């Protein structure tokens, strides 16, 4: 499945969340990740995140769809990480 994950965490947890998300998805902007991921891997990512986030103040939002082609993406300004070009 194709996923866009957005998070908002307290300062003390931001780096942990960043490192966790980078293991599973492609970083595209501050606190925003995207990529193809299996349902099992997504559940694993969420389970790991739930171990350290504060559910009273932090949030994780996951947008998912069957394929990347079902979404359109328009970038205005600098693209942080171009994942459309593979060698």
Account of the 3D structure:
With 87 residues, the protein is of the alpha+beta class. The chain has one domain (2-67): 2-Layer Sandwich (Alpha-Beta Plaits). The protein contains two helices and four strands; from the N terminus they run E-H-E-E-H-E. It has helices at residues 11-24, 39-50; strands spanning 2-8, 26-29, 32-36, 59-65. It has a four-stranded antiparallel β-sheet with strand order 2-3-1-4, with helices on one face. Helix 1 packs antiparallel against helix 2. The longest helix has 14 residues, at 11-24. It starts with a strand and ends in a 22-residue tail after the last strand.
Features:
87 residues; alpha+beta; Alpha-Beta Plaits; four-stranded antiparallel beta sheet; 2 helices
